[in-house]
Structure formats: structure tokens, C-alpha cells
Write a structure and sequence with these properties.
The complex is a heterodimer.
Chain A lengths: L1 E6 L8 E6 L2 E8 L2 E6 L14 E7 L5 E11 L6 E3 L39 E7 L2 E9 L4 H4 L1
Chain B lengths: L5 E7 L14 H9 L25 H9 L9 E7 L10 H20 L5 E6 L5 H11 L5 E9 L11 H9 L3 E8 L14 H21 L2 H4 L4 E5 L6 H15 L10 H8 E4 L9 H11 L1 H4 E2 L11 H8 L2 H17 L25
Parallel strand pairs in B: 1-2, 2-3, 3-4, 4-5, 5-6, 6-7, 7-8
Helix pairs in contact in B: 3-4, 4-5
Classes of the chains: A mainly beta, B alpha/beta.
Chain lengths: 151, 370
């Protein structure tokens, strides 16, 4: 079902807002001129994920050489701080959540942009289109093109 | 050398007095030490009290042979290789030029007194740790001698932890020459031994070595030295090792929440430390209860983490003996020498790419435009 949720200009780049679509609570994120939608539900323990802070990824070519990547925005769940890429719903921290004492090694896919490894959680995402400057969310949950999924 | 013998990763030598080093000092500094009646404190400002149950560190190779090289490691394994720790210059002077001259003389003395006389010996380069530029000079001067395998830094350093940008040239030089950082107990008594200030008893000072080591390792990984120099290897000597797992658990946990402050740390901190850091066995702070000891060793995985060290002449109890006795044959062989052979002794392994060194100029870059 496609639902018009807001005007495209209601969000500035980098902003996000939670909208109610029937029984669903959905976070709409504007990254540059693209829009993304995430279920307002943290896969970790069910917290209101999209009420959390959204921020561009912090990156560093070397210690001290810090910058923000405005094209990669993460939202942090206000309950425990789990962070999710708003484009893919992917979380990156704590892959396996193994205690440090087990030193098993394995070869895992590493995000080439950040050097990070995919974590255990993926938040639900929805397809978003902009039609006549109106943001339209398709509430049929999808798994978009997540590089971790296809790797 | 046989592949089965022990590697003693930390055994001490020390000049009996400053007179031993005078022949290696330039004329100006000979005059300086005579005019000021300087001494070389054999107790290192109280690190090893003269009344402790110990003997002076060997000052000649015959004594070293008798007390260390020709005495087997616990369990009877003969010592094939011993890495000399000469820490006499850790805290002698606040004159950086004298400090540099003394370290140079100490390295000459170690070479002429020990390394030239027994093929089982390896050396640690003493450097003026408060002056990174002079330290790099001394590293460059000694690096051509393959008998030097590590660079000795006092774990109790200066007002800045070693992860600070000012020390980067030192670590770059160490990595470039395929040497190892030897982060050894004790150091500058002028800097506080704990995060809350100076200690009031020797017991606190003694205990603080492991606590300071935790601070230095945290600094090296959080401030990005280990990530920036993936070939850099660090041996923490005489600071214990059983404190490591709780530190790693806590570091990884907090990193997940506070990573934005240090975005160059792209992997859990424990991964860098597990790959790039080893710790010597003496002193071993281990549970007395045999069942608890087994549990502790399961968590620690000593075979990949711990290097045997006799730490002669310092007496720390029977922890290392109990550690070795509790291990199976393969793990015991790894702790006694196997891990040290690849991690500490294997200099000049092929295909380590040459590195471009950072300048010692202050480091400040603007954040990239958003």
C-alpha cells in the first residue's frame, strides 16, 4: 500500500521525522535529496528507534583526520544506542556479540567505506518515492539493496 | 639455536655504577657527571629497593651466564635466547641532552659488555623517551645491529600517554626497522603513578605498573597508533598480564557507544590489542586455587599472549612457575619460546614495506568540508 506521508520540502537534508501510517510508526529520513523510511522499531529490544539522533557517519583517514560523510546517515536508538544505516537498516556493531574471551576467527565481509563488519540487526525499511514533491512510502516492508545481503 | 629452547623475554642487566658507562660518554658529559657528582641509582628511584630479596642485575657477561643463560627456565628447558632489559636510564635526569648521551652510552655498554660476548643475547635499545626526536636518532643509530630486537620505553612515561601524536615518530621508526616496542615497568618518578596522583606506599607503586600499562595500551589503540601502524608490535614487560581480558571487554563495550570520538578505530579495540600486543609472564598475578587458575588461563589464552620472562634478578613469587606447570605441552612451548620467536625475535622478516615518517611538527588539520 502506498501512502503519501509528507511534502518533500518539509525535511531539510539531514533531517528526519516520525510519521504515523495506520498502526505503523515510520521514520522518514532525508539524506541529501534522497528519502529513506525505517520502521520505528529497534530490532535489538523494540525501542522507538527513529526517535533517536540521526547523524552522518564519522570517518577518519588517519587519527585526527576526521570528517563527516553526509551521504551515510545513521540513526541511534534512544534506548541502548544501537545505530542503523538509514538507507539499509543495517547495524554494524557487535557482530556475533561474542564475549571477548572466545577468540574464534573467521573471514567476514568488511564495508569498504568504513572497514566495519555487519552486525546482527537489520531494521525494517520501506520503499520511498517522491511524486510531485510528495514523499510516498510503500508500507510493504522490503529488504533493499544492502551490500551485506548480497555479499 | 634449537627451536625447542626457551626465550627469556625480559632479563635485566645494569651497570654497577656510573663508572661503567663513563668510557662510553663523550668528554663533555664525562666532565658533567664528574663535576655534578652524578650517580646511576641502582634502585631506579625506589623501583627495586636495595633491601628487597634480590641481587644486583648482572653487570658482566660471566655473571649473566651463571645466573640466567646457563640456568634453565622453570621445568628444565634450557634458555636459547635472552632479551636484555637495561632500564638504568629510565629516570636519571631531566636534562634531555644528558638523557640522550646516557642512553647512547648505555647501549654501547650493553653491546660491548654482553652482545659481543654471547650469541644467545639480544638487546633492547634505550632511548631518551622524553625527547622523541632524539629517541628516533638513537633508534636509527642502533637499528642496523640485528642483535637489538626492541626499543625500551618506560611504562611510566611522561605527562602524555604514548598514543599522543608527539610520540608517533618514535613508533614509526620502530615499525620501520621491524623492531618491537618494549613497554617496561617503572619509569619517570616525576609523573604520577596513578590517574589520581602520586602513590604513598611502595605497595601501591608496585601494583600501579599493571594499571599504568592498561592506560598506555588504551592510549595506543584509542589514539590510533596501532591502527595506523599495523606492523607495530608491543611487548609489555614486568607489568603482569592477567588484567587484560577485563580491559578488553570494557574497551570494546564503550567503543560501541563512543566510537564517533575516535572514528579511526574501525574495529573493536580488542582486535588490535590481541594482534599487536604480547605480555611477559613475570610477574604473573594468577589465582591460587587450581580450578580458578584453569578458568583464568582459559580466558587468557596464554599461548598466544604471554612470553616467558625470568625477569632476573627481580623476585615476584612463583606465578610464572605455576603458569607453566598448568599448561599443556604445546601451550607451554609457545609461552616458553614459540610466540617470542615470531613476535619478538623475528626481525627483518621480508616484505615489510618502507614507511613514510611523519614530521615532528605539531599536528592539526581542519576537518574536511561537510
Amino acid at each position: 500500500m502506498k501512502v503519501a506521508v509528507m511534502g518533500a520540502d518539509e525535511l531539510a537534508p539531514g533531517e528526519h521525522r516520525v510519521v504515523q501510517v495506520g498502526r505503523r510508526s515510520i521514520g522518514i529520513f532525508r539524506v541529501g535529496d534522497e528519502y529513506h523510511a525505517l520502521a520505528d522499531h529497534c530490532p535489538h529490544q523494540g525501542g522507538p528507534l527513529c526517535r533517536g539522533r540521526a547523524a552522518p557517519l564519522a570517518v577518519a583517514g588517519a587519527p585526527g583526520e576526521v570528517a563527516l560523510d553526509p551521504d551515510r546517515v545513521f540513526v541511534a536508538c534512544p534506548w541502548h544506542g544501537w545505530e542503523y544505516d538509514v538507507t539499509t537498516g543495517r547495524s554494524y556493531f557487535g557482530p556475533g556479540e561474542a564475549p571477548v574471551r572466545s577468540y574464534a576467527t573467521e573471514v567476514v565481509a568488511v564495508d569498504p567505506a568504513t572497514g566495519r563488519v555487519a552486525g546482527p540487526y537489520v531494521a525494517d525499511t520501506y520503499a520511498v518515492t517522491v511524486e510531485d514533491r510528495v514523499v510516498v512510502v510503500d508500507t510493504a516492508a522490503r529488504r533493499p539493496t544492502d551490500p551485506e545481503e548480497t555479499a | 639455536m634449537s627451536a625447542g629452547g626457551a626465550v627469556d623475554a625480559d632479563t635485566h642487566v645494569a651497570p654497577a655504577s656510573l663508572a661503567d658507562l663513563v668510557p662510553y660518554l663523550p668528554a663533555y658529559w664525562r666532565d658533567y657527571v664528574e663535576g655534578a657528582a652524578l650517580r646511576l641509582d641502582p634502585t631506579q628511584a625506589g623501583a627495586y629497593p636495595p633491601g628487597a630479596a634480590t641481587v644486583p642485575a648482572p653487570a658482566d657477561v660471566e655473571t649473566l651466564r651463571t645466573q640466567v643463560l646457563d640456568a634453565p627456565a622453570p621445568g628444565g628447558t634450557p634458555v636459547d635466547v635472552a632479551v636484555l632489559s637495561a632500564t638504568s636510564a629510565f629516570d636519571v635526569s631531566r636534562n634531555p641532552y644528558y638523557d640522550a648521551a646516557l642512553c647512547r652510552a648505555l647501549n654501547d655498554w650493553v653491546t660491548a659488555t654482553f652482545l659481543d660476548h654471547d650469541p644467545r643475547l639480544r638487546g633492547s635499545i634505550a632511548v631518551p623517551s622524553g625527547d622523541p626526536e632524539a629517541a628516533v636518532e638513537e633508534i636509527d643509530r642502533r637499528a642496523g645491529d640485528p642483535r637489538f630486537v626492541q626499543v625500551m620505553l618506560p611504562v611510566r612515561g611522561h605527562d602524555h600517554r604514548y598514543g599522543h601524536r608527539r610520540f608517533l615518530p618514535v613508533f614509526e621508526a620502530i615499525a620501520e626497522h621491524d623492531l618491537v616496542v618494549g613497554l617496561h615497568a617503572w619509569g619517570r618518578a616525576g609523573s604520577a603513578a596513578t590517574t589520581t596522583g602520586f602513590t604513598h606506599t611502595y605497595l601501591q607503586d608496585y601494583l600501579a605498573q599493571g594499571q599504568i600499562a592498561q592506560g598506555q595500551l588504551t592510549s595506543l589503540v584509542v589514539e590510533g597508533v596501532l591502527g595506523r601502524l599495523p606492523a607495530l608490535r608491543v611487548v609489555v614487560a614486568e607489568c603482569g598480564f592477567s588484567w587484560l581480558p577485563p580491559l578488553l571487554w570494557r574497551l570494546d563495550k564503550e567503543w560501541k557507544g563512543i566510537w564517533r570520538e575516535v572514528p579511526w578505530v574501525t574495529r573493536p579495540p580488542s582486535e588490535y590489542l590481541r594482534e599487536q600486543v604480547r605480555l611477559t609472564s613475570t610477574p604473573a598475578h594468577l589465582p591460587a586455587d587450581p580450578d580458578e587458575l584453569v578458568e583464568a588461563l582459559e580466558i587468557l589464552d596464554p599461548a598466544s599472549l604471554v612470553l616467558y620472562a625470568g625477569d632476573h634478578p627481580h623476585v615476584h613469587g612463583d606465578g610464572t612457575e605455576r603458569l607453566l606447570a598448568a599448561l599443556g605441552p604445546a601451550d607451554r612451548a609457545a609461552v616458553l619460546g614459540g610466540t617470542a620467536r615470531t613476535f619478538l625475535l623475528d626481525r627483518g622478516s621480508p616484505a615489510r614495506p618502507p614507511r613514510t615518517r611523519s614530521s615532528t611538527t605539531p599536528h592539526r588539520r581542519e576537518e574536511a568540508p561537510r
